[in-house]
Specification:
single chain, alpha/beta, Rossmann fold, 8-stranded mixed beta sheet, 10 strands, PRTRC_ThiF, Ubiquitin-activating_enz
Amino acid sequence: MSAVPLIKQKVEFKQPKSWHGREVRVVVIGAGGNGSEVIDSLAAFHHAMICLGRSGGLHVTVIDDSKVREPNLVRQRFWPCDLGQYKSVVLANRYNLQLGLSWEGLPCRFPSVETEAAMSKADIVISAVDLPSARVAIADYKGRLKRDAMWLDLGNGHRHGQAVFGALAPAMRAEYPCVLDVYPEVRHLQDDTRKSCSTAEALASQDCLVNRTITTAGLSALWEVLRYGATDKHWIVIDLKTGMQSAHSFPPI
């Protein structure tokens, strides 16, 4: 008797029913090159959702304890008037004033006592951090989380980067692997805490449009969930030098 081949089923992340009829709560960790682009895109998502009749839109909490410096003004969404202010507070206030929102900026480190409440309510956590240790801290977070909380991680180098959309809650990682499942070597990487001292150095480390490109690619998965109810986008890789972009689906089951 011949063996019957096993047919694996395509995996999608479907918008939880608990998101319906209320604001979707998003926590953004990091408000620099990628993070500031994320906040700008989320403001557009919120406005679009309201226009489409989606009650509540988005509620966003931004976590970052760093202040705006002169080298940040080229490839981050800050301007000279923002110098010396906390990035998280600047971004939250900007869109609160423009759109009449009540988004929150927390000028503190993650994890901390100040971030616990936001994390416990988060439907989606978006990490836009440079340090491997910060990704490990998110993956190993021991605080209270929603069972179906998701995690979108954005990372990049000079002219390349990747976005990984997976589960934050450990119970769902077998079905929706997180960034540390895709890149397990992150746990063993050393942090580079050097900061650019000039605009030229900032552009030498990360090109002008790399943050916007990576953020747009990564947030496309979130927009599909919000607008169309589901996405199979798990892992997206971009190389600006070659112009290549590749997308990978969740592992079939």
